[in-house]
Amino acid sequence: MRRIQVGIVKDMGQGFRALSAVMRRRHVGRHGSAGAAADNVGGYTHGFGELMGGGGSDWAQTAFGEYYPRSAIVYAAIKVRQDAIARLPLRVMRRLPASRTRGPGDDSVNARAAGEPVGAEHPLQRLLDSPNPFWSRSDLWRATETYLSLWGAAFWGLERDENGGIVEIWPLRPDKMRLIPDERRFIKGFVYMGAGGALVPYLPEDVVWMRYFNPLDEYAGLSPIAPLRQSADMGMDALRANRKLLQNDSTPGIIIEMEGIPTDAEVRDFYARWESRFQGVEKTRRPALLSPGMKASNLGFSPRDMEYIESLRWSLEDVTRVFGVPKVMVGDLENTTFSNFSTARRLFWEDTIAAQLEFYREALQQHLLPHFGGDTLTVQFDLSGVEALKESEENKAKRRRIYVQAGIMTIDEVRRDMNLPPLGS
Description:
Helices cover 43% and strands 15% of the residues.
């Protein structure tokens, strides 16, 4: 049974058929849910523009995505977040009995996902390590974090083999995804606009749907761009205005006053001598000697110049505040010391990234893991390689040593908590 594709382009030739699975839906066309998806949501695809985009079309505007390449501050803040998420290995763990899953003082992110690693050959671990032939693990997480940061929602399309097993994950652009609500089941399905405008239906179970809470729309994620849009616009407007000012400005940097009215020859002679002595990088800041009756005045920053600087500062503060990124991590090194830089990095990981990792863990637990064993598996982001958290790791090592010495934990319990095999195994 072939997957029904709805679109104005019926045949793009051999080249189109060689495109990636997400655009052709090659795998899902071979299992039972393929026809069901077409029957379930195919009838809606004729009116793609009228469906709910990422929840509601107002919340999934393509314009939100345009802030990423246009705003340096938005780009920098999102890149810090995506780099942090993408560097972390994601481990699939087999759950242990509750009495063995955590010890006193364990870190919440790791403790909730405690268990034994399933190994690199487990189908889910292979899938997360290599989502599809064209995207690496880090590529998948960079795209996911970026989509959430821009649109407040992220979608993974799950591709299946002929037996119905999930074999590929494809990140899908939220501004090209439409939701079909259902009165009884909340979501009837999804429709994605693929290559050439082809519309591809998905069943709910073939999509991992992640979204930020939106108090104004139960179907849409709330884009972080929405509350900071004016601030980001203000920063970009200030840059554009300053660029035009620099291109067209004729304001001198210094004014020379003198008694009387000089002749044209005197003016030309003065400019020639002044430029010969001070023009060029190697002559910067050389002392000047003015003739009697002359007075030099530096214009400095005008109130308008100060408004430009303040606009950039306000924009920077709002963007970094919304994304939970310390200003020092996007290049604002004013008043920065090694101590407060290290503190900022640690707080970024402990507050911003830890919360985001838990958000991802719960989303995968609900939408992906049930396809691979349900309650017997869980996932855990490995934080052991994060330098900013090394101090916390050292404190935990001291605490574990105290617990072992006091008889609260055994050595094997400590090793299990560190994802190490028991002694003698």
